[in-house]
């Protein structure tokens, strides 16, 4: 199997795009994990604050669920 210059360049380019995609995917996965952790901590802080304040909600009950 003989590869000329153009085919080698295309193969290298394809491998570079694949590497870039993998780095980007890893970053997105890290961000998603961080965001879920941050959101859980925020909810825990909010729940603790509401429990400390007596659990009363100052918002009026209105709408189909309240």
UniProtKB/TrEMBL annotation:
From what organism does this protein derive? Brevundimonas albigilva
Q: Which domain of life is it from?
A: Bacteria
User: What residue spans carry the Basic and acidic residues bias annotation?
Assistant: 44-60
**Region of interest called Disordered, as start-end residue ranges on this chain:** 44-66
Q: Which sequence ranges are marked TM in the entry? A: 6-27
Its keywords, alphabetically, are: Membrane, Transmembrane, Transmembrane helix
Recorded protein name is Uncharacterized protein
